[in-house]
């Protein structure tokens, strides 16, 4: 059972390494303003996160099957003989470090994406202000210049 848990942790470590690489690539595409590439990478990131989540569920089941009542990997590691603890503690530490690195990179990506959205929104607002007529009564309903009557006018009509 320990070997299955170890293998699962190795797969998760590899997945987190790939995830960090994808997040760095996404950042490069964001700075290069390549939205199609960002979309493709984001889909890959989401699929990888789904797979990591499935691995974690499987790991939790393995740990509970091995050590009934265990809440996390630390509980499992505490039950191991001293000579086996070192590798599992190292794997846990590496997984935590990689998760932290991925979280930092994901936050950078999110901030950059938000800044690009705000920049685009500001540019669109500026362009709309520039093309809108200053005088709102410039055009009539028919698309022609409206005749402006600043003084009072009589209405003519038929009954």
TrEMBL record:
Signal sequence coordinates: none
GO-annotated biological processes: bacterial-type flagellum assembly
Keyword ATP-binding tagged: no
Family annotation (Gene3D superfamilies): FlgN-like
Keyword Transmembrane helix carried by entry: no
Keywords: Bacterial flagellum biogenesis
Reported function: Required for the efficient initiation of filament assembly.
Family classification: Belongs to the FlgN family.
The protein's name: FlgN protein
Native source organism of the sequence: Desulfobaculum xiamenense
Taxonomic lineage from the root: Bacteria, Pseudomonadati, Thermodesulfobacteriota, Desulfovibrionia, Desulfovibrionales
